[in-house]
Amino acid sequence: MTAARSRWVPWTVLIVAVVALIASIMVMVGGVSSWMGGPAPTTPGPYGMPMMPGQGGMMPGTPGTGPVGDLTEAGRAAQRFADERGLHTGEVMRFSNGYYAEVLDPGGNGATEVLIDPGSGSVQLEWGPAMMWNTTYGMMPSRPQTGATLVGPAEATRIADQWLQQSGTGLHAAEPTAFPGYYTLHSLRDDKIVGMLSVNAATGDVWYHTWHGQFIQMQETPHGAETPR
Q1: What is the pTM of this model?
Q2: 225, part of any domain
Q3: Which of 36, 128, 139, 183 could anchor a disulfide with 176, C-beta 3.0 to 4.6 Å?
Q4: What's the domain range around 45?
């Protein structure tokens, strides 16, 4: 390990720990939907931070091989991440702050969500729901309680629409894609993508993805929404 990389390790671990601590505290005091705010982007700059192995089942990131300049290259970077885990890449999106991709299981169901750094091509788990709510690939994986009532796809869409309406955004939600423990939906204005938000499948809490910046373009892989596991 080089001296430069060794200096990054404690900072990366600290950042992951702080994200987990803040999310845990806020969930305990009233639910994620009360502190996520509106959908205006609030986190500027590229994603850029390589993920280190964490506790539980959280997946480490995949180092980059060089700058990413378009959706095709972003998809290839995400596929390297997916290949290491027996998964494959679904939808790939470009935002002003970097690239996003869905990662799907062999059956075509949502497994997790990742961010691709445009400067280095490194891939990491997405902030927010992919880390904190994903019951299979997140920081705190768990098995759903037997008999627990889950929010269904239609209910997730209703919750997302209600949240967007109450936030005064003028946006509405598209159909949901299910991931283990939560759904992610595009937010739309006049049927054009603006951003995305997630709905927890157990609690109905809403988490808007404020870190992406402005939507630019998308490369879509058709798939259906399944009930979260």
Answers
A1: 0.74
A2: no
A3: 183
A4: 3-219
